[in-house]
Amino acid sequence: MASEDVVGKTTSDSAVSTIVNLAEEAKLASEGVKAPSHALLGVCKSLVAGGVAGGVSRTAVAPLERLKILLQVQNPHRIKYNGTVQGLKYIWKTEGIRGLFKGNGTNCARIVPNSAVKFFSYEQASQGILWLYRQQPGNEEAQLTPVLRLGAGACAGIIAMSATYPMDMVRGRLTVQTENSPRQYKGIFHALSTVLREEGPRALYRGWLPSVIGVIPYVGLNFAVYESLKDWLITSRPFGLVKDSELSVTTRLACGAAAGTVGQTVAYPLDVIRRRMQMVGWKDAASVVTGDGRNKGAHEYTGMVDAFRKTVRHEGFGALYKGLVPNSVKVVPSIAIAFVTYEVVKDILGVEMRISD
């Protein structure tokens, strides 16, 4: 009888153990199935937040964006735009409200995926760089530093810019053309197909090198300054600006504005050269043709160095900063709005990880 009790108890324990094991296996299997879908959902939410941030920020400053490009590429022998206020008034007078937002559809079509990829790439790059840094002896508990953030931002900028560069090139041409341009691109796809057919596929990446060089300090400094300023404010709490671990929207906007100012000032000359190189091969651009109908060759550059040399020689060093004022007026609120919109949308969508994390 005792033997039967032992056998029964053993059998019962075995059954319970088997059930527990099966339950654990089922739980692990369930988690294994859910984890990838949960991770994919997080990626999608992050991409959506980045896209919304880019679209909102660029639309808010579209008139200044167009004026900046017109100032960058206008022929020095036929000046139409003499400054921010005069330029905006001239566009309003000659082209109406639609002229102020010309090229914005193309810009948003480019900036939405660009911004989505950029913010997501920054998150992934910062995690990867921090992981590599922690592999070094003595750095096991290290956190992101401004230099590491600069590197992550540079990686994100290069990836995002390269992925959407043809759209940026086409957007520049659509933005520059006016009602008097002999050649009229009808839209994004017409411009893409026309450039591809008449100038070849390499034309879609004309100006890519100065863009790569320029995006490293620009995007890198944007992220590094923004995140470092936020960390400093939360840690030191100067002037009573921070009451708890969260920054107000106004304070975050100020951090974004500071980041945008630093980044665009350092990288602006490369942006001018990039934009001018994008116009190479487009002989019908009204802004590069003089009053007698002849193209003075202002857009005939053989490369980045040649573009720098000719620009400075014919127009002076100040030409590298043409359009800086409207760009400053534009980029400061644009970067600020983009950062804050990104974080707010991620909060709304319930994404746990922010760029600071």
TrEMBL record:
Location of this chain's protein in the cell: Mitochondrion inner membrane
Coiled-coil zones: none
Record's keyword terms, sorted: Membrane, Mitochondrion, Mitochondrion inner membrane, Repeat, Transmembrane, Transmembrane helix, Transport
One of the Pfam families matching this protein, by short name: Mito_carr
Entry GO CC: mitochondrial inner membrane
Gene Ontology terms describing biological process: transmembrane transport
Source organism superkingdom: Eukaryota
Membrane topology: Multi-pass membrane protein
Stretches forming Solcar repeats: 41-128, 144-232, 247-348
InterPro entries cross-referenced by the UniProt entry: MCP, MCP_dom_sf, MCP_transmembrane
Keyword Acetylation: no
Family: Belongs to the mitochondrial carrier (TC 2.A.29) family.
Protein name: Mitochondrial adenine nucleotide transporter ADNT1
Biological source species: Carya illinoinensis (Pecan)
